[in-house]
Prior knowledge:
- The protein starts with 21 loop residues before the first helix and ends with a helix.
- Strands 1, 2, 3, 4, 6, 8, 9 and 12 form an eight-stranded mixed β-sheet that branches. A two-stranded antiparallel sheet has the order 5-7.
- The chain has helices at residues 22-28, 53-62, 89-101, 118-133, 156-172, 287-307, 316-326, 329-332, 367-374, and strands spanning 41-47, 69-74, 106-112, 142-145, 149-150, 175-179, 200-201, 209-216, 222-224, 239-240, 259-260, 263-266, 273-277, 280-284, 334-335, 364-365.
- Helix 2 (53-62) crosses helix 3.
- By secondary structure, it is of the alpha/beta class.
- Helix content is 28%, strand content 18%.
- The chain has a single domain (14-374), classed as Rossmann fold (3-Layer(aba) Sandwich).
- It contains nine helices and 16 strands.
Amino acid sequence: MRRKLLFPSRPVEPNNGQGYFPQDIRRLYNFPANLDGSGQTIGILEFSDGYSLRDARQFWSLHGIPSPSLAFVSVDGTRNDGGVQPADEEASLDLQWAGALAPGAQLVVYEANAGSTYAEFGDAMVRTLQYILNDTTYQPTVLSISYGDAEVNFPTATLEQIASLIQQLSSRGTTVCIASGDQGAYGMHNPDGPKVRHADAPATTPMAVTVGGTTLEPNGAETAWTYLGPEDGGATGGGFSSLFATPAYQAALQVPSRGIPDVSLNADPATGYQIIFQGQPAVVGGTSVSCPVFAAMVALANQQRAQLGKGPLINLTEVLYEAMEGSTRASVGFRDIVAGNNSYNGVTGYAAEPGWDACTGWGSVDAARLIAFLATV
């Protein structure tokens, strides 16, 4: 159910194998230097995965980043275990990279017990979203969710309830960003499942902003993330929902149902991100990282809007698609990805091609351009 991937591998490795540093990602995606997320709150959802504050502070300090304000909220009594388990890399990378790119924002980790079945995990997601909807203490303006699996693994009623909660959050000004998955068009964590295409849930919920993955070379070249080498090291999730109909904002694309992702950023473990885990540097990838990176961009956009006397973004998914109907991609800030695909585990995926595709969505972004555009809507 979790997204994190850690694999050795191939293209030109950033910083001689140390992974990308925050300053690299700021430069390659053109983050505006005058914004840091001040006045905004980023909620980070974690399910039975803890983090070490010492690790996070070590990472931020290593890169000259002031430690952000951080709060921990237990939704159901689940404690932060301090980042001592291997699976805790998930919470570590979410926290460290959201804070690295929006250090002025308040970070809030919402923790819940994932349970041991998909039904229990779905219930935990519902509990957490309901809690946040009623949270008058922090009232986050953006959420980052890096968990999920194929739609077929979850009860339909649970996914519909999650979609309703996300719609309520989105309409009040809380953008919900969800990772698209790391198993390509196959879409299942279990490698022995049926060799057909699956879309990832809860990423397919219509009002989420679903974040896919690319391979970002140090020279700025970018392709869809896929890797069919001997380790079968992951691919960007993408495809079409078997539950949610085509939303109005995607009608012009003439797609059969809700298509994901909406946007993509670097996720390939071979061009991965540095974190500190259990006191040591590590390199991680997966849409688990691209998701909090995009969530940080949303926080910066909301900061810019606040400076102009505007409220936080409402229904951002609709905003992005409506903008693309009447604007050039460059004016909105999208960088089209036209190479690669998301084939995985013997399942033929979707090709990255001009315009929107079920591999990289509208593509990656120029953060400064995107934020400037979003300040005007």
